[in-house]
């Protein structure tokens, strides 16, 4: 017999735990969480390489309903974040709702029954009314295809698949990449290895990390005076919102100021003129996610470190080789090459109305959705951190905004005695036309960079939100009934004709361009 639940949640990271919280708050306890691994935690379960930590202030990188006074530093390390996720899950009492070691591989909409039929890699079958996919956009590592890898006598490891049994101490280490993970693991390698080769194809903007330690006394103050945590959270959110609005409109004066601050930091840390020139980005600040680190530049300038700009083209029995003929002997190659963020919800085949494939048919050219969350032709399917949802700041705040939108839609279905909800084709088309227009004027597309925000690193931006977190919260909190289609079992589909604006705190500044259905709501 096929198991049935009103709601199935996919993923046991922040998205899945937030979904569980909001479902329970709505009085909806008929749900199960499918988690592909043996434990909770998402990216913080997988990314446990040396020095792994968040680059967003910890009190902002927290669920709003579960403030944490016990962070030991302003930028939390991976193990504290992982412990926090598990603590929140236990406090909510949802661990027994998690189906561990269960990987969803297909979801098909059954029109006649009004349910999603699900199949797992382990051979299980489930069905549900509502399907919330919170498996994350940074969950599939980007592993370069390096000819000759099978001949390499050393060890190769990706930062997302770290193995503590592999030691870097006293060894010849290659670190490939220059994103946040590389900036964290490379200083560790320089500390313990015999020599380090840093392979950097595209140098990032690096800004110093103003890290503060929270001792027991500070933690006690946070616990006794929660307003202290709120103030840190609000200040960080405001700063990210201001920076994102600057980047969304290519504010030249503000970008030049940030680039000047970066230049001052580079020159204070890198004395070698040739290395400074190499580490100077050829694109505008913010086009790629800036790196927050006070140790990356010193590690690159260390006498142990050699920096190459050439891309690794192959591996040999003894090390790595580049297309320009150089070779380097190595014992360990660390791939800090990030994730395939544009290949969203990899490993899951979605088939909606008329058995259309989400990826092969609807997303053939590029991933797109309505408000980054729902897709026309895929009733009752909700995508957490889907297309165009990476608003600058805390991804947890993005998840919470999406979850509020999802709960609105689920309530709407029940209040109207309907079977399902989805956006209309017209609304989805108009929304994405607006997104494309707004993105064209932003630093993320016009800033001339390679980025994981873009298809193939240089094509269309499909992950980034074209504005601030505040504007994303505004957009997702507004229920545009004209944009939605409800379907009932007997009467077919019915379009909703009224518009209801749900107010939230902290509205963004207005701009001339705005998403369809929002008037002058801001970007």
TrEMBL record:
It is an enzyme of class 1 (oxidoreductase). Its EC number is 1.14.13.-. Gene3D superfamilies: FAD/NAD(P)-binding domain (3.50.50.60). Keywords: Monooxygenase, Oxidoreductase. GO terms for molecular function: monooxygenase activity. The keyword Oxidoreductase applies. This is Flavin-containing monooxygenase.
């Amino acid at each position: 017999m096929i198991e049935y639940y009103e709601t199935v949640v996919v993923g046991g990271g922040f998205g899945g735990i937030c979904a569980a919280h909001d479902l329970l708050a709505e009085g909806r306890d008929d749900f199960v969480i499918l988690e592909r691994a043996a434990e909770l935690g998402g990216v913080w379960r997988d990314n446990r390489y040396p020095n792994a930590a968040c680059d967003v202030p910890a009190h902002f990188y927290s669920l709003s309903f579960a403030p944490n006074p016990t962070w030991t530093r302003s930028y939390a390390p991976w193990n504290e974040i992982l412990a926090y996720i598990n603590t929140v899950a236990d406090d909510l009492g949802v661990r027994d709702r998690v189906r561990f070691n269960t990987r969803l591989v297909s979801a098909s909409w059954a029109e006649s029954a009004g349910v999603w039929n699900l199949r797992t890699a382990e051979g299980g079958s489930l069905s549900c009314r509502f399907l919330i996919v919170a498996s994350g956009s940074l969950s599939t590592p980007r592993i370069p295809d390096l000819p000759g890898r099978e001949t390499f006598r050393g060890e190769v490891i990706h930062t997302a698949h770290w193995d503590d049994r592999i030691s870097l101490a006293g060894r010849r280490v290659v670190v490939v990449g220059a994103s946040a993970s590389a900036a964290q693991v490379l200083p560790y390698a320089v500390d313990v290895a015999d020599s380090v080769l840093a392979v950097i194809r595209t140098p990032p903007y690096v800004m110093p990390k103003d890290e503060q330690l929270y001792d027991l006394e500070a933690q006690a103050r946070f616990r006794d005076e929660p307003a202290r945590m709120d103030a840190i959270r609000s200040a960080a959110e405001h700063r990210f919102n201001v920076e994102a609005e600057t980047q969304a409109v290519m504010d030249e004066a503000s970008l030049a100021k940030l680039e000047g601050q970066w230049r001052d930091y580079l020159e204070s840390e890198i004395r070698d003129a040739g290395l400074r020139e190499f580490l100077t980005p050829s694109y505008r600040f913010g086009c790629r996610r800036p790196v927050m680190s006070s140790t990356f530049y010193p590690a690159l300038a260390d006498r142990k470190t050699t920096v190459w700009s050439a891309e690794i083209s192959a591996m040999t029995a003894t090390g790595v080789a580049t297309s320009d003929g150089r070779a380097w002997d190595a014992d360990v190659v660390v791939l800090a090459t990030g994730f395939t963020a544009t290949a969203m919800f990899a490993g899951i085949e979605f088939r909606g109305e008329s058995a259309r494939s989400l990826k092969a048919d609807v997303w053939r050219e590029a991933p797109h959705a309505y408000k980054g969350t729902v897709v026309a032709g895929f009733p009752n399917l909700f995508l957490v951190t889907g297309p165009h949802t990476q608003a600058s700041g805390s991804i947890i705040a993005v998840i919470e905004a999406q979850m509020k939108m999802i709960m609105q839609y689920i309530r709407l279905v029940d209040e109207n005695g309907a079977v399902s909800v989805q956006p209309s084709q017209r609304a989805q088309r108009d929304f994405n036309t607006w997104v494309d227009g707004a993105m064209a004027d932003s630093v993320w597309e016009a800033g001339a960079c390679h980025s994981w925000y873009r298809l193939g690193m240089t094509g269309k931006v499909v992950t980034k939100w074209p504005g601030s977190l505040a504007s994303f919260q505004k957009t997702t909190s507004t229920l545009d009934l004209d944009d939605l289609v409800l379907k009932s079992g007997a009467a077919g589909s019915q379009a909703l004709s009224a518009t209801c604006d749900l107010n939230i705190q902290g509205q963004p500044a207005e701009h001339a361009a705005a998403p369809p259905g929002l008037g002058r709501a801001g970007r």
